Amino acid sequence: MDRREVPGAVSAYVLDRFSDLECPRVIVETGLFTIDDSTLRFLRDHLPGHSVEIEFGLESSDPEVLRYSLGKRIDLEQVQVKTALAHSYGFTMVANIVLGAPLLNYDEQVDDAARSISWALDSGADGVVLFPMNVRKGTLLELMHRRSLYDTIDYLAVVEVLSKLDDRCLGAVSLSWSDLHQTVDPSIVDSPSYEGCPDIFAFFNEFMSIEDTIERRRLVEGFMRSHQNPARTRRFEGTLRERAAMVSLTLGLVYSP
User: Fold this and answer.
1) From the centroid of its chain, how far is CA 28?
2) Which string of DSSP letters, residue by residue, matches 7-63?
3) 1 occurs within a structural domain
4) What's the Rg (C-alpha) of the chain?
5) Does 221 fall in a domain?
6) How many beta carbons lie within 10 A of that of residue 142, not counting itself?
7) Contact by Cβ (8 Å): 137, 189
8) How many whole angstroms separate alpha carbon 87 and alpha carbon 124?
9) Is the dihedral angle over the CA atoms 227, 230, 232, 236 positive or is it negative?
10) Does residue 16 lie within any of the structural domains?
C-alpha cells in the first residue's frame, strides 16, 4: 500500500477486481508506516464484504537487530498503535518475523525469533508468520554470503523456535518456507539447509494443517526428540554495532551507524 511504489489508481484497480471473485479473505502485505486512517479507509471502501488481513514486516522486536543486522528503522511503539487502528476497522494484523538475521550467532537467531513472536502478539498482532531468511541476488546479504560472513540457517532451527513458544504463541504462528529443489526462483542464491532431515517439509505441512495447540505441541516435541539439532556455530563476538563495523570493514564498505 506504499503509494510511492504502487499509485493509488493501480491499487484501486487491483482491489476492485476482488469484488468479482468469490474470495472471502484478502491478504494485503505492506509496511507498518503505510498503515493510517487514509489507507485503511481505502481498503475498506474497495473491499466491501471481504475479510481483510494486513501482513506487515516487523522482522524483529529488538531495536539493535533491526538497526545493525537488518538495516530497518521501525518505531516499535507504533506497532501497538497501528494494530489498534487496524482493529478499529475490523481488520486483522499479522506480523512477519525473520529467522536467521545476519550478524547473529545461531542461538541468538533462534532466541530473537522466539522473543519477537511473543512480543508481536503482546503488542496486539492477531498472528505471526515466521520466515527463515533466503539469500537473494543483488543484496548485501549475498555479498556477505560469498565472503563467508553469512550462512543460511538450518530448517531445524524453525522447530527449535517453535519449541520455545508458549501455547498462545504456538497456536498463533504460521510458517513460510522455500524448497529450491521444488521451486525455481532465480533470485534466490541460497536457502536454509535441511541435510540429514528430508522429512522437514512434511513436518511443516503437518504443523500448518493442525489448529489444536496441544496437537501442535506434541508434533513439535516428537520431532525434536527424533532429530539431532544442527551444530552451533559462533562466528561473531562483541555488540551488534561492533559486528556491523567489522563486517563493513571486511567488505570495504563505508560504515554509518
Assistant:
1) 15
2) -HHHHHHHHHHGGGS--SEEEEEE-GGG-SHHHHHHHHHHSTT-EEEEEEEEE-S-H
3) no
4) 19
5) yes
6) 16
7) yes
8) 9
9) negative
10) yes
Number of domains in the chain: 1
Q: What is the pLDDT of residues 47-89, one digit of tens each?
A: 888 899 999 999 999 999 999 999 998 999 999 999 999 999 9
Rounded to whole angstroms, the Cα distance separating 47 from 58 reads 25
Q: Label residues 77-104 b or e (16+ Cβ within 10 Å = b).
A: eebeebbebbeeeebbbbbbbbbbbbbb
Nearest to 225 by CA among 174, 167, 156: 156
163 lies in some domain: yes
pLDDT at position 184? 64
Round to whole Å and give the CA distance between 217 and 210: 10
Cell numbers representing residue 124 in the block: 496486539
67, three cell numbers: 538497526
Q: How far apart are CA 221 and CA 20, in angstroms?
A: 44
Domain CATH for 77 = 3.30.750.200
Predicted model pTM? 0.92
From residue 253, give the alpha-carbon distance in Å to each of 72, 139, 181.
Answer: 18, 13, 34
Domain residues for the domain of 81 are 8-251
Q: Can you spell out the DSSP letters for 184-219?
A: --TTEEE--B-TT-TTHHHHHHHHHH---HHHHHHH
